[in-house]
Specification:
The protein is an all-beta fold. 2% of the residues lie in helices and 44% in strands.
Length: 187
């Protein structure tokens, strides 16, 4: 469980956390699935994502980023999946991704997953496949997804996307509940 609190802990008005496998476990191809219950409320930005383990060497977005799930509290019924690389990212306004509308996704647990192949990434909400990103080139600017990545689960409060319409401070604490994280490797 990851909480977002309005607790002024060590001088920070709002505190939250992230869980990461950086330095512990990387993934390359296969299925990464997370069953979670996201928080609801303006200002929340829960995410399940990966970054290339080579991020310190090549930087972002060259390392590649796979956003398995993002949700922003000002649009709580939308579930987003995105990829970021040198050629495609939100900074250059060339992003690649999709979203779907889910009926009260915060009310129960759902499975958010990516099925990662050598030539494509397929994103799922429960059993609904809603975004496929296909390998267009072997150029690492377009497809950095042939190198290991590590997983991050986090709950941001505010931020450049989640905080665009402010933060509802009457709903603290916010809670991002994680039931499981599973990795299935293909043989």
């Amino acid at each position: 469980m990851i909480d977002g609190r309005n607790d002024n802990w060590t001088g920070h008005p709002i505190t939250t956390a992230s869980l990461t496998t950086k330095g512990k476990r990387t993934f390359l191809y296969g299925r990464v699935a997370v069953r979670a219950k996201i928080p609801a409320g303006r200002g929340t930005w829960p995410a399940i994502w990966t970054l290339g383990e080579n991020v310190k060497k090549v930087g972002w977005p060259a390392c590649g980023e796979i956003d398995i799930m993002e949700n922003v509290g000002f649009s709580p019924q939308k579930i987003h999946a995105n990829i970021h690389c040198t050629a495609y990212n939100h900074v250059q306004h060339t992003g690649r991704g999709a979203s779907l509308d889910a009926d009260t996704p915060w009310a129960q647990f759902h499975e958010y997953a990516v099925e990662w192949y050598e030539d494509r990434l397929e994103f799922l909400f429960d059993d609904t496949r809603y975004f496929i990103f296909r390998k267009e080139s072997t150029d690492s600017a377009v497809w950095p997804f042939s190198k290991p990545q590590y997983l991050i689960l986090n709950l941001a409060i505010g931020g450049s996307w989640g905080g665009q319409k402010g933060i509802d401070e009457t709903l603290f604490p916010y809670r991002f509940e994680i039931d499981y994280v599973r990795y299935y490797q293909r043989q």
